[in-house]
Design goal:
Shape: globular
CATH class: Mainly Alpha
CATH architecture: Alpha Horseshoe
Structural class: mainly alpha
Radius of gyration: 14 Å
Oligomer: single chain
């Protein structure tokens, strides 16, 4: 698994070099860092992802979990509040449009 995570980190780093505005690459690299136990790096990448895409639910989720691992509970709670607001908005939109899945779950 370690080799797969290292390869994922390298691949997402290359994607970021090619397109520095690719929020999904930052979030996915952050997730790989998280699974390697590199929680500060996970926070850094997920923060960049939400800077690029402020409604990126999965980036907030990963960052919230990383904050918890770092015992940064205030920051984790802030991300939790943001997630609650975003998911409520997303589900409300899904209900209005008749789409059974929130838009964020399709990323």
């Amino acid at each position: 698994m370690k080799d797969q995570l290292d390869k994922a980190i390298a691949d997402y780093s290359e994607a970021i070099k090619l397109d520095p505005a690719l929020a999904v690459a930052y979030r996915n690299r952050g997730s790989a860092f998280f699974h390697k136990g590199k929680f500060n790096e996970a926070v850094r990448d997920c923060t960049k992802a939400v800077e690029l895409e402020p409604n990126y639910v999965r980036a907030y989720e990963t960052r919230q979990e990383a904050y918890k691992k770092l015992n940064k509970f205030k920051e984790a709670e802030e991300d939790g509040r943001t997630l609650a607001a975003l998911t409520k908005k997303t589900w409300k939109t899904a209900t209005v449009t008749g789409d059974p899945e929130p838009a964020e779950s399709k990323k």
